[in-house]
Amino acid sequence: MAAVSVFPSPAELGAALARSVAEAAAEAVASGGRFTLGLSGGSLVALLARELPAALRAAPGAEPSRWLLAFCDERLVPPEHPDSTGGAYRSQLLSQFAPPGPRVLWVSSGLGPAEAARDYEEQLRREFPGEATPRFDLLLLGVGPDGHTCSLFPGHALLQEQNSLISFLEDSPKPPPRRVTMTLPLLNAARALLVVATGASKAPVIKRILEEPREEAPSLPAARLRPRSGRLRWLLDREAAEELRLPREECP
Ligand SMILES: O=C1O[C@H](COP(=O)(O)O)[C@@H](O)[C@H](O)[C@H]1O
């Protein structure tokens, strides 16, 4: 069962998200020496860029130099392109870390989609030796008004992927079309998933994802986020949560 927390606005949500990341980092660094974090793009980039640096200053044990960062999905455009998730994080968030900052696994934009996915999966496997399916400490996810998460779109064949950790698509309905993405088996292996949604345009799909009867294989990709043994928490602002009736935590 997912936990659902609702915030008055994206500002309070962003601050709580940043505190959760800092706390998870401090815990992981204390127990295992490193923190593995997967980042999604879109609206998350600005939220994290605005709130995470201050949250980290308040959590000395979080130690960003002990972090391994990966991208939950990436658009295959040059890093300087405005659609590049890695490029956006580099300029908006990573530039704020004092050296040495986190270690980052970059998706290679110079390769074709299939090669880029294969290369990224190899990079990941090297970082998690001995784990058939790597378990990230925390994955930060978004959701689109159509119910997509990462670059997993409704009705797309990638939803059936069972073997690869990373896959690719060349027909994303949301531009740009060429992308690589974590697959459901990798997402659902994580120790914790935080899914963030803000704005009224997402209210109808949030209701469907969280309140429609649970099917074996729901059509909305974000409804297939079901961690095998990890935690799943949704962070919503009031607008995104306005159609929900289920019990949730109302946060100040
Ligand atoms: O295209 C994408 O969209 C989703 C949702 O983005 P948002 O701006 O509506 O929050 C994002 O999570 C994903 O990383 C991105 O490639």
From TrEMBL:
Cross-referenced InterPro entries: 6-phosphogluconolactonase_DevB (IPR005900), 6PGL (IPR039104), Glc/Gal-6P_isomerase (IPR006148), NagB/RpiA_transferase-like (IPR037171)
What top-level class of enzyme does the UniProt entry assign? hydrolase
- For the keyword Hydrolase, the answer is yes
Q: Does the keyword Membrane apply?
A: no
Pathway linked to the protein: Carbohydrate degradation; pentose phosphate pathway; D-ribulose 5-phosphate from D-glucose 6-phosphate (oxidative stage): step 2/3
Gene Ontology biological process terms, A to Z: carbohydrate metabolic process; pentose-phosphate shunt
Q: Which reaction does it catalyse?
A: 6-phospho-D-glucono-1,5-lactone + H2O = 6-phospho-D-gluconate + H(+)
Q: Name one GO molecular function term.
A: 6-phosphogluconolactonase activity
Q: So what EC number does this one have? A: 3.1.1.31
Family assignment from sequence similarity: Belongs to the glucosamine/galactosamine-6-phosphate isomerase family. 6-phosphogluconolactonase subfamily.
Which PANTHER family does the record match to this protein?
A: 6-PHOSPHOGLUCONOLACTONASE
Q: What is this protein called?
A: 6-phosphogluconolactonase
Species of origin reads: Lonchura striata
